[in-house]
């Protein structure tokens, strides 16, 4: 797995590089000290994953994430956002823009490795409940809510049901069990929903489900 490390602190990058260089199956193919360099490294190296710090000088990680996810040539490049705070509007905007998930900077090394594997395999890092809580927190705010987009109206009733289950954090296998369908059919439904909504991965599906009002945050 080829990884680009983007963080304005050289010591942080060195720590991540040391971790990945000593783990089988990982290669650090580039480093960046700001967002502009992160975009450049992504275009040069076409890594599997960019580990992206949010707060960097010049172009920040949010702007860099937007550029990477909007570039058709980088469609296969995933972004894993790193942050100091778990409830952060910058992180929400990064997920909205197409980042595949986020981790706190004080995450244990084994969790970073697991996250990279999950994202590189095409899944969004949505297992931690904090991620869904973050999306629910910001997507439900009036300034973020938007009427049912036309693309959402293209979904069949079953596809809307599947989208709601994805937003609830269910895996393809759990969706299959819930709907009494095969896992292959579940994967097909999720894939079709992603295609119709133009979503890069499940993280964007969750954002769209909340923003459109298809799914509402649970009352506290």
TrEMBL record:
The keyword Magnesium does not apply. GO terms for biological process: phosphorelay signal transduction system; regulation of DNA-templated transcription. The keyword Transcription applies. Keywords: DNA-binding, Phosphoprotein, Transcription, Transcription regulation. The modification 4-aspartylphosphate is found at residue 53. Residues 2-120 form the Response regulatory domain. It comes from the Bacteria. Residues 148-213 form the HTH luxR-type domain. It holds the Pfam family GerE. InterPro entries: CheY-like_superfamily, NreC/VraR/RcsB-like_REC, Sig_transdc_resp-reg_C-effctor, Sig_transdc_resp-reg_receiver, Tscrpt_reg_LuxR_C, WalR-like. GO terms for molecular function: DNA binding. This is Response regulator transcription factor. It comes from Solihabitans fulvus.
